[in-house]
Amino acid sequence: MFEYVSVREMASKWEISERRIQKLCEEGRVEGVQRFGRSWMIPKTAEKPKDLRRKRGDIGV
Description:
The chain has helices at residues 7-14, 18-26; strands at residues 4-6, 34-36, 39-43.
């Protein structure tokens, strides 16, 4: 059984915003995440997904 943490706790651990964590959960990019009402609960051992967003200076095709 997983031990879960909140979006706020994971945002602090991964050093990204709470909103970004929510988007990652909505997109299904965090393994084992569970939705409880309007809140997301994230397994304590979940790995931070790679950032697939384009960065300034990336070459577009």
